[in-house]
Design a protein that fits this description.
- This protein has 494 residues and is of the alpha/beta class.
- It folds into 2 domains: 5-264 and 470-492, Aldehyde Dehydrogenase, Chain A, domain 1; 269-458, Aldehyde Dehydrogenase, Chain A, domain 2 (3-Layer(aba) Sandwich).
- It has helices at 44-60, 68-84, 86-97, 101-125, 168-182, 196-208, 222-230, 243-253, 278-290, 310-322, 342-357, 391-394, 410-418, 433-442, 476-481, and strands at 5-6, 10-12, 15-17, 24-28, 35-40, 129-138, 144-155, 158-162, 185-189, 215-217, 236-240, 259-263, 269-272, 302-306, 361-364, 381-384, 401-407, 422-423, 426-429, 449-450, 466-467, 470-471, 484-492.
- The strands form 6 sheets. Strands 15-16-17-14-13-19-20 form a 7-stranded mixed beta sheet, sandwiched between helices. A 6-stranded mixed beta sheet has the order 10-9-8-11-12-22, with helices on both faces. Strands 1-5-4 form a 3-stranded mixed beta sheet, with no helix packed on it.
- β6 (129-138) and β7 (144-155) form a beta hairpin.
- α2 (68-84) packs antiparallel against α5.
- The mean pLDDT is 95.
């Protein structure tokens, strides 16, 4: 598969705009280290232009004032234009993010399009003016007044979406869908490692005929992000990334009291009870280890297994992982591709060494796969951990490193699961559905999958986390509400 995408322009005010400096960066395939394209590098001045365009479009343009169904029609055209270029976009996801073909198609693309379609449909059926109370009370001038109250949902304003490199296309659409559906104007800042998946969306948005300034894309580094998160003309920030960066963004937004939605890290626990379907649990354990080469905030990388089946689980898990093919994800037979960069691989290797030095038993992997010297590959790595206190069980590694931890009682498993600064996802495996549900209720996390769950994102329900895993929710009615203001109008009749 040969991908070549060269773009020298940002998308600001409905037009292609070259960065002030004209600077471009090369984008490489993390599996082959070959150059697959070039992308513009934005500056603070470019961010300033994007903010001005988005502010003008919100304050004076037609977008926030449109009737909901009219806005939905334009977004449907945008959605359908993206669908029409699925093959091209999936190939780009594989080449730029290192995703396997199957995951790029089903998870990066199809699930993001399902989510976009959900928001388009929701704004067509949802009531944005909601009747409140009706009352009769004495008038100051005599007689009776008839009073009534309505609740009105209105677009919040100018939004900034900042996304991560692990699921770039999916995360970009997760910002675009609800923000534009709500009537906001949006500035998207993609991760520096994966700019092309944002820029192709900008190209398609122009073809779909979005009004000028409604959707803008600015690339760049930390200084561009800081401009976007501190400018008083920006009303809201929706960020996906690490908890450390999320805390910085929250601090930057605080002086101007922006609304902030943060979808952050995770170190989620998967509890495997004594009566679990062991093969099903191990298969899910393997997928949580290897999906997107372990670069996923939602992945359940602490696997808490009842001590009576712990060794059996480890043997089965290792046997399954050993059958996985690692290599260039453009090959449809490959099950796991590379990490995003050499720097990320070094970070993961450092964690593996830390895991060994702290006395955890390495039972599988731990190094660079034989014969894969080109590209940023790493072996799926499984530790039998001595306790939940070890570094590799507490910190988000963002690579294919798994900690298996034993327990003896349900109470102990719940305590271990909750012994984390994160709370994004979780899992419970048991043939006793009632017991699994009771355990799920006690885990302090934003979502729990029982026996693997339904297997795909359900855009009708909210997604988000507790503790350092974030603030706010994406998807569902709650996800749209992140981009809406509530106004109460109280009036009286004659």
């Amino acid at each position: 598969m040969t991908i070549s995408m060269y773009c020298d322009s940002l998308y600001i005010g409905g037009k292609k705009i070259k960065p002030i400096t004209g600077a471009v960066q090369t984008v490489i395939n993390p599996a082959t280290e070959e150059v697959i394209g070039e992308a513009p590098v934005g500056t603070i001045a470019d961010a300033e232009a994007a903010i001005s365009a988005a502010r003008e479009a919100f304050d004076k343009g037609p977008w926030p004032k449109m009737e909901w169904r009219e806005r939905a029609n334009i977004l449907q055209k945008f959605h359908d234009a993206l669908i029409a270029r699925k093959t091209e976009i999936v190939n780009l996801i594989v080449a730029e993010a290192g995703s396997t073909v199957a995951v790029a198609s089903a998870m990066h693309f199809d699930m993001s399009m399902d989510g976009f379609q959900y928001f388009i449909e929701q704004i067509q059926r949802r009531e944005f003016i909601v009747p409140g109370s009706v009352s009769v009370h004495p008038s100051w001038t005599g007689g009776q007044n008839l009073g009534s109250t309505v609740k009105v949902y209105e677009p919040l304003g100018v939004s900034v979406g900042i996304t991560a490199y692990n699921y770039p296309f999916f995360l970009n659409i997760a910002k675009i869908g609800p923000a534009l559906a709500a009537g906001c104007t949006l500035i998207l800042k993609p991760a520096p490692q994966t700019p092309l998946q944002a820029l192709i969306i900008g190209e398609i948005a122009m073809e779909a005929g979005l009004p000028e300034g409604v959707f803008n894309i600015v690339t760049g580094g930390v200084e561009v992000g800081e401009k976007l998160t501190t400018d008083p003309r920006v009303d809201q920030i929706s960020f996906t990334g690490s908890d450390k960066v999320g805390a910085i963004i929250q601090a930057q937004a605080a002086p101007t009291l922006k609304r902030v939605a943060l979808e952050l890290g995770g170190k989620s626990a998967m509890i495997v009870c004594e009566d679990a379907d062991l093969e099903l649990a191990a298969f899910n354990g393997m997928m949580n280890l290897t999906n997107q080469c372990g670069q996923g905030c939602i992945l359940q990388t602490r696997q808490l297994v009842h001590n009576s089946i712990r060794e059996q689980y480890l043997e089965l898990l290792c046997a399954m992982v050993s059958q996985m093919k690692i290599g260039d994800p453009a090959d449809p037979d490959v099950d796991m591709g590379p990490l995003i960069s050499a720097a990320q691989r070094e970070k993961v290797l450092d964690y593996i060494e830390k895991g060994k030095s702290e006395g955890n038993r390495l039972v599988y992997g731990g190094g660079i796969p034989e014969g894969l010297d080109q590209g940023f590959f790493i072996e799926p790595t499984i530790f039998d951990c001595k306790s939940n206190d070890t570094t590799i069980a507490q910190e988000e590694i963002f690579g294919p490193v798994l900690c298996v931890i034993g327990f003896d009682t349900e109470e102990e498993a719940i305590n271990i699961a909750n012994d984390s600064v994160y709370g994004l996802s979780g899992g419970v495996f048991s043939k006793d559905a009632g017991k699994a549900f009771n355990i799920a209720k006690q885990i302090r996390t934003g979502g729990v999958l029982i026996n693997g769950g339904g297997g795909k994102l359900n855009p009708t329900v909210p997604f988000g986390g507790y503790k350092r895993s974030g603030i706010g929710r994406e998807y569902g009615e709650e996800g749209l509400n992140e981009f809406l203001e509530i106004k109460v109008i109280d009036f009286r009749g004659a």
